[in-house]
Amino acid sequence: MTLGCEWCGRDRGFRPHVSSNLPAIADSSERDTERVVHTTSKPPALDGFTASAYRRDRLAFALRAAQECGDVWRMRRNVYVALTAEPCLAVLRRTNQEYGTPPGTFPPTRRPDGSVPGEQEFTHGHAARMRGLRPRAVAARLGLIAPGITEFAAGLPPGQDIDILPRAHRMLFRIGGRYLFEEDADSLLAAGGGLPAAREAITRGLPWPRWMPTPARRALTGHRTRFSHQLQQVIDRRRAENRLGEDVLGQMLKPSSQYGLLPDTAIHDSLTGLIIAGSEVPTRAVGWLMLALARHPDLAERIATEAAALPDDPHHPVNGRFLAELPFTEAFVREVLRLHPPNWLQARIARRRTELAGYPIAPGTMVLVCSYTVHLDPREHENPDTFSPDRWLDYGQASAESRVFLPFGTGPRACEGAALAMAELTLLAAETARRWHLYEPEGLMPSHGIDTDGGLTPTGLRLRVTPRTR
Ligand code: HEM
């Protein structure tokens, strides 16, 4: 019996410090495919749930809850988890007025009068960022990210144990910066280089009250100020030269016909968030992607064949047509994200009284949307535990788009970088598989642990490559 998915099965075992010991639960084929009807006003809780047991194996609890609780699990008195497609979509599609997001690591910069930006500025900022991040903009500007991806793939050292995640993070930080700031990337990334580690230190630290100026918070503020200072110099120079640029920063500097100019404070806040978002979560995805290439050599071979049709010259201009030549590779990436959604829980807080799957929800209730269990629900995908990229090709485009696929969320707070991330991961899979066979080093089985705190991450992932000869 496979548990969770074929990669997370206990038969492979995991290093002890990580989420691993999935309790015996039914295979998806044995799961009850009828929706559970509840008669109480509260969603069911799970026997044996304690905070420490949950911390030890969050995925196992989620899978057990999906089997025993139906649509919604009452994890704590005021924390509910939406486990199936219907309630997950219902929550994600609601507006900010109905479900807000918990405060993030970067509180918005206060305006000179001490106020914080309101809903209109959020909408304006979103529209301004999306001018540079929507699929058409990404397709037109693939040439900015392709060389960094090729360089990464070509530079993997053969025959050595490669610690994948730190390398991937450096590459994504660089190419993300290039996509956001083009020729100003070097100076801005140098100024913001400490931001990812400073943010990581806060998310991993003790949950001190938000007002407490801990050393980690002071360090983050320092990095934020350094980055903002450099960013303002770039903004002032671009305005003085009347050359705003076509990159994401340039798009944000252009006035919108509806809202006018976006305040500089909003540009600073947005771009600080984007340089983190552009590297932190995608790094986890790259980990799962490289592991999938190693664990499915037959499918990696198909990617290599598809990629071989592409120009070999690293300086060849790359555009959206390039990606259109890689349908199987893209399906492979989708399948990796289906089984390992790096953001497997998305948090919302109910702002007003509402209901979810028939249960009343009081204001202030936290609702966690669990894409992990939705993606493993046999009502959404046949044989959901099986790694099968072909399912996405078999669905056909229209049906594939209507499938519940939530690695990037959906609705008003859906990932703004989804098109960029898909392009990066597809190019990376193609450029890696065309050059290398990947495998897990012998004696290091398994080659990784799993961390589920905050995101779904393959920790300490080590892989080896040998050249693919044709
Ligand atoms: C595989 C890579 C990525 C994954 C799996 C991912 C996943 C997600 C998810 C699930 C959310 C929604 C969270 C929610 O509903 O609360 C999100 C939000 C966001 N993502 Fe991504 N993301 C990825 C890459 C990127 C990239 C490359 C960028 C930008 C360069 C980006 C920028 C953002 C932003 C700005 C938001 C916030 C949207 C908002 O709150 O309105 N992401 N991401």
UniProtKB/TrEMBL annotation:
Query: Could you tell me which InterPro entries the record lists for this protein?
Result: Cyt_P450, Cyt_P450_E_grp-I, Cyt_P450_sf, Cytochrome_P450_monoxygenase
* Xref: Pfam families: p450
Stretches for region Disordered: 96-121, 449-470
Alphabetical list of Gene3D superfamilies matching this protein: Cytochrome P450
Q: Which family does it belong to?
A: Belongs to the cytochrome P450 family.
- Report the protein name in the record: Cytochrome P450
Look up and give the organism this protein is from: Streptomyces millisiae
